[in-house]
Amino acid sequence: MRILITGGAGYIGSHTLLSVLAADHQACVIDNFSNSHPDALTRVGRLSNRPFDIHQTDLRDGSALTESVAAFRPDIVVHFAGLKAVGESESHPLSYYEQNVFGTIRLLQAMDAAGCRSIVFSSSATVYGTPQYLPYDEAHPLQPVNPYGRTKYFIEEIIRDWAATDPAKGAMLLRYFNPVGAHESGQIGEDPMGVPNNLMPYIARVAVGRLDRLQVFGDDYDTDDGTGVRDYIHVTDLAEGHLAAINCLQHHRGVEAVNLGTGSGLSVLQMIAAFEAASGKDVPYAIAPRRKGDIDKFWADPERAHRLLGWRARLGIDAMCRSVWNWQSQNPDGYGESPRAG
């Protein structure tokens, strides 16, 4: 199969690229490197010992994108590219709509021009919004509470309308929860620019000495210890979930929404304790005000992924924390301090 991966130099994209290459597919990455590092792709090349194409292209550039997609002629597109921070989306909503929604429209147009009728979309549990019940299953009402979540919701609806135009089209909308962890080699992992918006890279940077202390955003949530509870999933499991979706799309048409999660939740303080145990490092923290758009707790019902894709998460919190520390301790500055392209 010929698999095109948008945002393939990013955190989840690079791990999925590695899984795609290991499964003996041909791959092409499209990335503008605005929030990723080209060295991630160099490392994937070394780990896989497999060639793949790279196009430095912005999804919003319709003509360049159409040219890149046409040049590769993909069978399936795996779509990661987009902005992804809840807090940032509250401050800069128009940037999120432009990059995420408009960029996806341009991608679907480029796919139509190239005759590609299958897409795996990197959606998010944020489409569910405040839980009406837990765990979230795929039938839960979709009521996102922040601009980031709304972009994911709107894209899902756009993909549904796109797929309805041709019975040969198929789409997997993968609503995943909180990705953490790194490849077992320690060579690729999560390396956000600036102060991380996500918990685990923030913890890791404190442990390695790049940041003084962790900010815990709120300790008055309706949870056992007052801190937010999330369903954390190892990025390796997540990559395998995308590979399972690719395999399913080889014979499945129509649109399917699927949760990728573990089915259980952990609080921020539990995550800190687990990382300290795995790394042997102290992680000092201070309580900060809640962030707008965050909710108390959520976790997945992952059974549909098992029934439809034959997939389950395998790796627990200890493996997640060990792999993050392996990545961060080998790469204290991540992929390096050189400016990112784009």
Task: Describe it.
There is one protein chain. It contains eleven helices and 13 strands. With 342 residues, the chain is α/β, with parallel strands linked by helices. It has one domain (2-330): NAD(P)-binding Rossmann-like Domain (Rossmann fold), CATH 3.40.50.720. The strands form four sheets. It has a seven-stranded parallel sheet with strand order 3-2-1-4-5-6-11, sandwiched between helices. Helix 7 packs across helix 11. The protein is globular. The two termini are 29 Å apart. Mean pLDDT is 95; it is low at 338-342.
- Could you say which overall geometry the principal axes of the C-alpha atoms support? globular
Gyration radius (Cα, Å) is: 19 Å
End-to-end CA span: 29 Å
- Model regions low in confidence, pLDDT < 50 over at least 5 residues: 338-342
Beta-strand content: 15-25%
Mean pLDDT: 95
Overall SS class: alpha/beta
- CATH homologous superfamily designation: NAD(P)-binding Rossmann-like Domain
Order of helices and strands: EHEHEHEHHEHEEHEEEHEEHEHH
DSSP helical segment count: 11
CATH class: Alpha Beta
CATH topology-level name: Rossmann fold
> What's the domain count?
1
Query: How many beta-strand elements?
Result: 13
What proportion of the residues is helical, as a percent range? Answer: 40-55%
CATH architecture: 3-Layer(aba) Sandwich
Biggest sheet architecture: 7 strands, parallel
Biggest sheet, spatial arrangement of strands: 3-2-1-4-5-6-11
